[in-house]
Amino acid sequence: MYKNIEKQATLRLADLVDYQPGQVVSRTLVQNQGMGMTLFAFDKGEEISTHASGGDAMVTVLEGVGRFTVGGEVFTLQTGDTLVMPKDIPHAVYGVERMKFQLVVSF
Predict the structure, then answer these.
(1) What is the pTM of this model?
(2) Does residue 67 form part of some domain?
(3) Percent of the chain with pLDDT over 70
């Protein structure tokens, strides 16, 4: 089930994905028909444009500050904050500052 991650070890999720200047970096930890789990690192000012997901998506900010727009409503999240983005509702992500977050999608 899990890939790209060490098992039976204490890990800090934010350390598993690195910032790259001018880029959005991702690292998939789980991808199957029931769920997906991915870590993201956004450089300041980087974004993923509006799109929708086929499952409910939960993000938890591990580091930094990001702006998540869900169905036209804007949420500014910082380290430790979590937001659920409902299935089929358009959403977008923007790095207000450098930001790392965990995305868990349940299908």
Answers:
(1) 0.95
(2) yes
(3) 100
